[in-house]
User: Fold this.
Amino acid sequence: MDNKKKVMIRGVMILLAVAALLVLSRRLVTDYGVSRDERAERESLLVNANYIAGLFGKGDDEITPLSEFKDRYYGMSAQFPMLVFESLMGDNLRHLFLARHIYTLFVCILGYLAFYFFCARVFGSRLYGLLGSAMIFLYPRFFAEQFYNIKDMVFLSIFMMMLYVTYLFVESGFKRRYGLLFTFACSVATNVRIMGCIFAACVIGYMWMMFLRDRKDLRKVIFTSLYILLGMLVFIVILTPATWHDPIHEVPNMFRAFLNYGRWNGTIVFMGQVIDKTRIPWYYVPVWLLISLPIWYLILMVVSAVLLVRGLVRTVAGKEDLFEKIFVTNRYVTLTLAACGIPWLMVAVTGATIYGGWRHLYFVTPAAVVLSLYGIKYIIENFGKVSANAVRALVIVGLMTQLIWIFRYHPFEYVYFNEAGSLFAADFDRDYWHMYELPAYRYLVEVNSSITGKDWFSVETEGADYFKWLLTEEELAKVNTDMEDADYYVASYRGIVGNDYQVEGYEEIKSFVVNGFKIATIYKKAQ
Assistant:
């Protein structure tokens, strides 16, 4: 079979896989509610869009002016396509948010595809590409949040796209056409989250290190570095409407706002204590990774790290070129570890505000996967058949276990803790976005008539009742969330340590339990 046919078949298979995921999404998208941040993200999008419309004399005076908007610097570049939904669906919030969820999933699918190509190229086999993307897609927290986490999951996806774009740029020998793609993609990543600029720092740093070693192409290195920096500056201004009226002053203001974000003043449940943002320890993220990444990921990461360090030690002992080993032979493993590790170190050192589990740093997961793939390949190629089969079995069993877990606890995948972490899950944040509201409503619809004798009910929740935006008119008629002394009270365990929670005047009738710990409880008014 010639190469053209192979490429065609591969393309068709990829398209079929994407289509299958989108068909699956059609069945699953209505299982998840609306998260707390989605309303704010939609508001940011509309404020930015209204500013642009105002430049053409078509703005809406009832929408907050962009210059007065508290989140005016938040990057909307990845969300601008959703303005199509606003135009087509108008005030139909149910259709609008379902469409937003499918769009979020679509962006995530693009990220999985990019990560597939990156891993396949780096490790020399499509099997490693499939395994790498499967380890991201079938991580339970991501499986749920890929539908509604428009911030962290979208940035994770763009981060994975950036890994592949960076690979193409480096492999091209830093050719200008790939440089334009890299610069634009890096600008989008930085617009979505400031950590996206790490790719520019890594690439420029890599070019200069190679120059210092080889003493070649100084003019090209200088030109490419300036091309990236100045190009990003231009693209970031284009992608951020809040900077348009005064880029010289607003771009620095934007970066200061990102670096000094401190408006959030909530509490966090961490290791059995309720703490505020000033008490977040440096080991906050490592602990979260230890309790919420699958154990077999952690095993592979440790083994891979040992193998990597052992290889470096042998390189030094054998008086081989250590620079060559790190920045040439394993340059893309080094790139991934640096792009993921440096931002976390900055967060730990600066004490940046992190809350809602470790979602702000979901983008470090590709480093865990790439490190694991390095170890898997090394063992298969350099150890005996027994070790190779053992690691294959670990991967197969691990992925199957995750798939079973997803089926068993759907739609609560977003509170996944590994088997060890589940023992202590009640001492950590659980459902911090109140996603339990929609499943709680559906449960009450089933049991209410037998409890109250009515075909409707009143309920009070601890969330913002955004679940109602996904209900049909018929479903909305069955629930009232505005009555005092409601028939039911639904409580989450946000800001609560442990599994015991009492509501005065109410008695427990149902708890949503995931792998031994509660994430929400429904109470009925006592008679």
The two ends are 75 Å apart (CA to CA). The mean pLDDT is 92.
